[in-house]
Design a protein that fits this description.
It contains four helices and nine strands; from the N terminus they run E-H-E-E-E-H-E-E-E-H-E-E-H. The protein is α+β, with helices and mostly antiparallel strands. Strands 3, 4, 6, 8 and 9 form a five-stranded antiparallel sheet that branches. Helix 2 packs antiparallel against helix 3. The longest helix has 18 residues.
């Protein structure tokens, strides 16, 4: 597994954490994002994620570089899953190590927000009564006419 990776299959949380462990790490924070069943009163059946993988991995690495520059002594690893994900499946794992816990928490939150802003990963929610591409990173054909 690479430090920044898009995966078509189950994510290994422990392995992502191990990528950031080092002797100077006093803290490791791990964020896992999961498929939830209910969103604003609507029942989700499953999610379908797609990505432009080469660019998505480059953008994940860019986020890692931003974090390592902003919070000195940090190390970052990010894995995001694509394909069909069912309720409780893990969609993303972000691990951040740092000498102290505050930086690890802050950097981890920064990472998920930046992923949502800039990484070409698209999420389609499939509900009992329909489906829709969701979020800022809608598929390009979904964005036309929205600007």
């Amino acid at each position: 597994m690479k430090q920044y990776e898009i995966i078509d299959g189950p994510l290994n949380v422990q392995h992502v954490m191990e990528l950031v462990l080092h002797p100077g790490a006093g803290a490791v924070t791990t964020f896992t994002g999961h498929v939830r069943e209910w969103t604003q009163g609507v029942r989700t059946l499953y999610l379908a994620y797609e990505a432009y993988v080469p660019m998505a991995e480059k953008k994940l690495a860019q986020i890692g570089a931003e974090i390592e520059e902003k919070w000195l002594g940090t190390r970052v690893a990010i894995a995001h899953r694509i394909g069909e994900l069912h309720i409780s499946d893990t969609a993303v794992v972000i691990a951040v190590s740092s000498p102290h816990r505050k930086a690890a928490y802050e950097a981890n939150e920064y990472a998920i927000e930046r992923i949502k802003e800039m990484v070409p990963i698209w999420k389609k929610e499939i509900w009992e009564n329909g489906e829709e591409w969701i979020g800022e990173q809608k598929k390009p054909e979904q964005r036309r006419g929205m600007e």
